[in-house]
Amino acid sequence: MNKVVACIDDSTRAAVVCDFAIWAARLLDVKLEFLHVLDRHPERASISDYSGAIGIDSHESLLEQLSALDEERSKLAQEHGRQILQAARQRAEAGGVSAVDTVQRHGALAETLLDIEPDTRLVVMGQHEQAGSSRWYLDQNAERVVRSLQRPVMVVNGAYKAPERFVIAFDGSDTAMKMVQMVAASPLLKGLDCHLLVAGDPSASVRESLAQAHESLESEGFAVSDVVRVGEAEQVIRDYVLECQADVLVMGAYGHSRIRHLIMGSTTSTLLRTSPVSMLVLR
Q1: CB of 72 closer than 8 Å to CB of 89
Q2: Residues 102 and 34 sit within 8 Å (Cβ to Cβ)
Q3: What are the backbone angles phi and psi of residue 55, rounded to the nearest 5°?
Q4: pTM (whole model) above 0.90
Q5: Mean pLDDT on 206-219
């Protein structure tokens, strides 16, 4: 686990991804790798897919021209990706990161990240939105990545500024306690104000776990605030991160059972699409 992997493309959030990745790589003191994945969209099928639909005898010349156009499009996409990666490298070096790599691959993002996961400490990526789509299209790509990987994933949103405070969505579960232990042991969020947020009316056991989590973080030098808010989890979390002006929301990845997720969805899935701030999702 010796690198931060930043997934970049030509979206408007590419610069924000770069800046958060630079921030993380410097704090973790690891190499920064920029990854650009060329993913052929279904609506842009290769011209070879049309060979059975065009009469070869009467349209051979047209087929050759279309094939040449397809090849040229591929070359242009690769060159465009190379330029994106070069700009990211320059931004990282200007930001004080000396160990920087750039990688361009063909394929799907989640599968590509799985291939390099053993050497990855943190993945940084942006929210994505398809033009004209509903809000619920947001972060389907991020959700696939979070579901696929065991490594922490940071999904960035909004303009970059160096984080000053973060919120941990805490429910008292074993998963939540492990998440707190990961945060306490990592240098990534050290020195930032920490808010432990419980959504709902906590039981005695949850309050006991909250006290233990507070102690674990405080013993590692964090300034910790405990917050309990009654209400529906997603809304409580969204409202509180805005109220306290948090820069990062820390959550566990899919603590609900698979059946519950199929029926109701999960808090993590919902917030990947709707969180007003960047999210750090931990396994």
Answers
A1: no
A2: yes
A3: -65, 110
A4: no
A5: 96
Instruction: Give the pLDDT band (50/70/90) at residue 50.
Output: low
Interatomic CA distance for residues 197 and 227, integer angstroms: 5
Angle made by CA atoms 24, 145, 148, in degrees to the nearest 5: 115
Q: Which helix (H) or strand (E) holds 268?
A: helix 267-274
**What does the pLDDT read at residue 133?**
43
Map out the domains of the chain with their CATH numbers: 3-41+77-154 (3.40.50.620), 163-282 (3.40.50.620)
DSSP codes of every residue in 112-166 = HHHHHGGGEEEEEEE----TT--GGGTTHHHHHHHHH-SS-EEEE-SS-----EE
Average the pLDDT over each of 39-43, 145-149, 181-185 and give the range with the smallest value.
Answer: 39-43
- In DSSP terms, 7 is beta-bridged to 35
What tokens does 112 get? 């590509």
- CA 176/CA 178 separation, integer angstroms: 5
Helix, strand and coil percent figures for the chain, each rounded to 5: 50, 20, 30
Residues 278/238, Cβ–Cβ less than 8 Å: no
- Let me know: does 230 contact 281? Beta carbons within 8 Å: no
> Residue range 21-32: average pLDDT?
98
Q: Which of 122, 149, 215, 147 is nearest to 177 (CA)?
A: 215
